[in-house]
Structure formats: C-alpha cells, structure tokens
## 1
Amino acid sequence: MSEFRSRILGVGAYVPPRVVTNHDLAQLMETTHEWIVERSGIEERRWVDPGEGGAEMAAKACAEAMEKAGLAAADIDMLVYATLSPDVQFPGTGVFVQRLLGLRDIPCYDIRQQCTGFIYGLAMADAFVRTGQYKNILVIGSEVHSTGLDVSTRGRDVTVLFGDGAGAVVVGRSPDASHRILSTHLHADGREAEILWAESPASRNHPRITAADMAAGKHYPSMVGKKVFKHAVTRMPMVLMEGMVINDLKLEDIDMVIPHQANLRINQMVAKLIGLPEHKMHNNIQKYGNTTAASIPICMHEAIALGKIQPGHTVALIAFGAGLTWASAFLRY
C-alpha cells in the first residue's frame, strides 16, 4: 500500500469576546497586575459568557479552518477533539461539534492529553492520512476553564493563568514536499501526575465528590508550580531537539517555533536555553492566558495573520503539560 503524506490545509481560531484583565481579577482576590505579569507574562484573558461552551467555540474555529482550506462539511471524514474541559461528563464534546457543523457519520475522537492534546491530535491525523484511510481531518483544541476556577485568593496561583478559547486545523493530503507534516514526537511520564491535576470529582471514589472535597477545593485545578516549571524547561527543549535530529535541521533552518502558551517565563527560558532568537518564537499568552489544548492553534493562527509564518516555512510546535506529557511536531507550512 502506498503511503500518502499530510499537510495543514487551513487554520482557524476563536476566543470569546469577554476580556478579563488582571485588574478585574484584583477585584476578586488578593493580587495585582504587576504580580501576575511578573510571574506569567499574562495581562488579560478571555472568558466565556453563559450559554457558550467548548463545542460552540470549536465549531466557529473549525468553520474558519474549513473555509481557509476550501472545504465543505461533506469533505471532512474524521474529527479529533482535544480538551481537558469537556462540555459534559459524557459523551465526548466531539460529537456536539460534529452536530453543529453538520458532519454526518464520521468518526469523532476525544482525547485527554491536556496542554499537549493538540499535538497528539495532529499526530493521530497525520497517521490516518498517511495510511489513506481518511482524507480530510479536523483537529481541534477547545477549552472552557473559567467555569471551573477558584476565583478567590485561595486559588489565585492557578486561576490567574487560564483563559477560554478554541483553535482548529484541517489536515489533508499533501501533493508535494514543500507543504507537509514532517514528523511528530509524543511522550508521557505519569510518575508525578499529581503535580498538575484536578482531583475531584473522581469515578474511583464513592461518592464521586463530597461536601468535604468541595470545601477543600479538590474540584479545582491544583499545581506545584516550581516542579511544573522545571519539567517544562527541561522537556520542551529536549523534544524540540528530538525533532531537529530526526529531520536533520539546525536552529537556523527553523523559521518559527510555536510553543504551548502556559507561561511566558517558561517560553522565554526555553528560548534562552537553546539559543533561539526572539523573533523565531511567537507568544500571545499576554492576551489570552493559558488555553491548554487550544493554545497552539490559536497562537499559530495569529502568527500566520501577522506574516510570521508563510507558505513553505519550517515550523516547530512544542508543548508540555499535565500527565506529565510533552510533544513536538515539525512541518513545512
């Protein structure tokens, strides 16, 4: 069986219109604009208003990606939805996006690799296109964090970091080597999974959540920040270098690096450690916060709009997140 190669045909993004600034958060908890910027680089983020969920945001991002790719609903034959914040406990949110877009009878995968979810989804799509089983695949990252955050001083270390939004790409067949996904590199290590997690509700517990759990804030995300930072600035350069070795690339061969937008200080440290010039890494966490699985496609979408990524450019996507998971993808856009 002959092997096809894949490429990104179109990129779309959507963020809700409601802007929440650091000054807004300072009205709800003991924090300041300066404190948040110093530690994370974040100045504002977008939060949904009632009635808007991950599926609705994802459908808008997908519609743009499909338009950019010149494809209609009937042309899409698979969907991969990455998130840590599904709209409901079950079924997966992918089928709700499918319904909103009018995609009939296609397979929908929902995956839970958190901040690296988009790259994991991209790897899945690349593999399916290579086999010839599917031709045009939507890969989505969409998150609603704002409805699950502890908006008090107790939760500020985590709450100030997160925003809502969605990004999507269409992955399809590539006719030539000038536009294609070159490689993907996926990793996980669960030995310290609890340093970044939301403990409750949990199906391993009966009942799944108690009043005591809620009083202790176990239904909110928690993070051991220093450990996460250390892992991120170690794993992200490693997985970037892994892809460079596989593709026989040097730093000067890479036109743009799009990192997961978890913390601007992490990304700046990664760039410093590998000697990457500032103009070769695009960040937009300052405006959107950490949108987890959505951050890379949202950031890539913006870099394309700004002309930082152009047809034929060599682009590296890198991420690190809960699990712990980390990944990279290399492509010629």
Note: DSSP finds eleven helices and 13 strands in the chain.
## 2
Amino acid sequence: MSKTHRPAAAIISLLAGRGQTLALAESCTGGCLAHRLTNVPGASTIFLGGVVAYSNAAKMKFLGVRPATLRRHGAVSAATAREMAEGARKRFGADFAVAVTGVAGPGGGSKAKPVGTVFLAFAGASGVRVRRQFNPGTRGAFKRITTNQAWEMLRSRLAEPEAARRRGKP
C-alpha cells in the first residue's frame, strides 16, 4: 500500500471495526479527501458520502451553512467549518464528519486570512472541534498537507474515547 493510502486505510479499518460511518464536507481540497479515501478497498463500509462545496451557495444549499455565518465570518472561518461538518454529518446520517475550508491560493488571501489558511472541523455525537492551520506553498502542496492534517485530526479524535476508556474515564 502506498504512503498516501495508509492514513485513509487506517481510518477505514478503525471505523469498520467499530461499525461507524463517515461523511465529508470539502471546499479548498476539492474532493481530495474523498478521492484518497475511495482509493482504498473497503471504503464503502464506512464512507457514506461527501459534498464538495466550493461556492458559498453550495455551502448553504447542501451543508446548511447559514447566510449570517458567511456574512459575519466568511467562507474561510472556524464558524463555517463547524457548520459544514455539522451539516455533512446530519445530511448523510453519519457517526462522524470532517470538513475543510481554506485559501489554497495563489490568490484570494487577505491580511487576516493569507493564502495557506485552512480550518479543519471534526463533528461527532459529542460536538464539533475546529482547528486552524497555516499551510503555505503551492496549491498542490496545500491540498496534500491539508488532507494529511484532516486524516490526522480524524484519527486522533477517534482515538480519544478509547484512550479515556483505558484510563477509566467516561
């Protein structure tokens, strides 16, 4: 198995072993998460679907991002990533969802959100967590790094409940 498939394969194995499912909401990665996931045999056991919502209209229509959120915070924001993840989880009826929204470049950045800014969100039954990252570089590198960060965020969030159980915590 190639190095690029290992993180997705680990996620598939973990979720399949638990009988849990995943949905995706992508903007700046343009479907790279779904592409890498579906390149691994067995993806269909856990992956319910995804939405590539590049425009604000698509974020609202398909993921339920509120117009007020986009006006107040913009498409590249923690608030939008949160609503994208919640929307994907709800729309697909998945146990978990991951969302990414950012500025891949080379244009489109601002002083507050320069090219390379990305927000990653993880949604599950216990809520949504969002992380801001900065991944400057070429568009291709941005997408590859962001995808790897999304896999790592998902893997670490999925491992948390198991680690807590081993320590005897709820």
Note: The chain has one domain: 6-166.
## 3
Amino acid sequence: MTRLAVLDLYDGEPNLGIAAIDEILEKYREEIEWEHFDVRQRAEMPAVEDFDVFISSGGPGNPMEGDGIWDRKWHNWVDDLWTHNLEHPEAKKYAFFICHSFQMLCHHFQVGEVCSRDAKSFGTFPVHLTDAALADPIFRQLPNPFYAADFRDFQVVRPDMLQFQALGAEILALEKVRPHLPEDRAIMAIRFSEEIVGVQFHPEAHVRGMLQHFQEERRMVLVINNYGKKKYEQMITDLSDPAKIQLTHDVVLPTFLEKSLEALAKRSVLV
C-alpha cells in the first residue's frame, strides 16, 4: 500500500481545499492510505522516509513569512525530500505543491521573485501552457489554454533561468496575457524534477462544492460587491462548463497520483 501525507497549510481557516484533496484520494483508497499533518497550527511534519507521496496544500498569508517554527520545519522537510531523491535514485519520493505551498517552494529554491499582487486574483481564469508542457505527462493532457480556479494575493514572477537550469526545472504554465497591464505574467506551474511538481492554481477545486459555496446568497453578495457581477457570472459559467474547471480537476492531481503509483509499482517489481 502506498503511503501519502497531506500537508495542511490552511492554519485552521475554513476552506474547500483539504476536503477536495480527500475526495480525489478516496478514488484511490485501495492503493493509497493517507494521513493529514497540521503544519501551521501544530507544526506537524511528515518524515520523508515514512511516506511515498506528499501533497502540500494552499493556505492564507504571506508565503515568505512564518513563526520561525513551522516554516523552518517545512523548509527543512523540502531539503530532506530533495536530498533523499538525489541520494536514493532507487527509492525516490513524489510531491505535489499547491498555491501557497508552490509560492513557498519557489521562494525556497529562488527560482523567481515571490511578491504581492496589486489586486487579489479571484475566480476562474485561462492558463497558458509553455512548450515544455507539451511533453509533460500531466499537462500535455490539457487544452491550451486550460481553465483553473485561482485565488491568491501573491505571485511568482521574473524567473531566474540560471536557477531553473541548475535544478533541472521547467516552467509548464503562465497566467493569461494581460496587455493592458505592465506587470510580468505570473508563473502558474513548474516541474521541479521528474518527481516534484508545483502549481499556483487549485487543481483540486471541486466544482460541485464551489458552486454550492458561491451560490449561497451571503457569499454571492460578497463576491459581487468586491469583484463585480460580471466576474461572478463568469466564474459560475466556467464552473458549470465540464471542459473547464471540471476537466482540470479530473486531469491534474489524478494524473500526478497515477504516474506516481505507476513508478512506485515498477520499483517494487524490480526489488
């Protein structure tokens, strides 16, 4: 049985993310057993040697700040994971990083500038694939552009290509072109190694749950007041289109899990 650790970085805030990750994992219950770790409230961290696969979640706040305890443990865990994969090519671990965790990972590896946005990204948006994505086992299965649920106050811009080259990493996706704005396009997905992938958006976004969440009157009024009726209607339309957010949900995390399981199964046969 494959062992998987879910690193919860939501700091106790109500969210749809962890439940959505669990729902995806339920489809693999016969192959995967998983455990949750409350990273920010309890400073819980999984030992790299105890698990085969890791998913590090989104969460609130500045990705470059912590309390000096949980964040240090998290960054040490990243170093342990990377070192393990370098030193044990026959027993590599697999990891997926979402939103806040992605920003923290980019800051950790110094692959780009992590900074606050002028305005919060909120809703559903087209995301554009790079040439590297066309050969990627996950992203080559998506249309270009594909659609993603994107809720963030921070972004990763201005990639350091020398650092990318040193790591062997590749940019897989960029945010939509915004010709009316002078800002750099944010990086939306990176393959850091064959085993480690990170995305800025929320691939776990559960369409049914999000529709129910945002169609509640209180939240509907809040979104319309803050972002406008047009933004709200566009988000509901994208959520209702099976070729948009639902497709991303069905492809990204499930393919990561399936490819990880395949690699682990091949390894066990060779042992």
Note: DSSP finds nine helices and nine strands in the chain.
## 4
Amino acid sequence: MKKLCALAAFAAVCGGPVAAVQAADIAFSVGQTGDSTMVYRLGLQANWDASWWQTRVGRLTGYWDGAYSYWQGDETASNHSLSFAPVFVYEFAGESVKPYIEAGIGVAAFSSTELEDNELGSSFQFEDRIGFGLRFAGGHEVGIRAIHYSNAGLKQPNDGVESYSLHYRMAL
C-alpha cells in the first residue's frame, strides 16, 4: 500500500508543472482480460492546453490520465492498481461528433504481483495503451481501449497482462 501511495504522490507532483491543463474530467471503464478477469477503472483525465498539426482533417492533442483499477479474478484474490500516463490523441474534425485515436505509455503500481495465471514479477508496471472512440459536443466521450501492463523485463517472471475495455468520459 505504501508503494501505491508513493506513486500517486509522485504523479500528482510531477503532473502539474509539466504542462498546462484544463479542468479534470471523470472517466469510467469496464473490461476484461484474456483470463476472464473483470477490470473496473475509475480515472481523472485533464486535457493538455495544446494542440499540434491542426488541419482541416484534425489535430494532435492529449491528456493526463490518473486512474484506480479494480481487478476481479475468478481463481485468485482480487488486485488493485494505480496508474498515471500521458496520452496522445489524434482528434478528427467534426461539428457535433469527433472520432479519435489515442496512444500512450505510463506507469502503474499493483497491490499484488499475481493476477490469475499471470506472474507480474513486480508491483511496478509500465502501461501501454491504444484506443479509439467518439467525442460528442457537451463533453461526453465513448470508446474502446486496449491496455497492456508489463515490467519490461526489469524483474522475472514478466508475464504481463492485457485488458480490453469500453470507457465513458464526461466533463465535470
């Protein structure tokens, strides 16, 4: 638990000065791993106050994502994780609906190194993500996301785990 609190404090301290952000949004997601582990995620996301390569087709932007995930296993005890990641988003142009694709790499800390049949090797994990979805006028968003967790071989075993989820984001 001390590791999770330390990671959350580190993310809060480092996230502020790196880039100017707007108000945070709240995001919920539900998904599953290949081992039938259910994943429930609650996150706060803050858009970057910047965009690049803006054309009539779309623009590149991004957000900071901090989240708590609950992993409900069938065979072993449940697990918990905290994560923090910068996420790049290419948002296509649109009036009331804007399709987007996203990708990011961040860090996560798990409460246990076991998750069903997966031996994570360490509580510290990298979080790689890719996703796509739709942003609606009024600050709502729905999408599909795949997230992979691995310690990048820093400690063995390094089975890693993937989650596939449906998410919903709303502006606060």
Note: The CA atoms of residues 83 and 91 lie 23 Å apart.
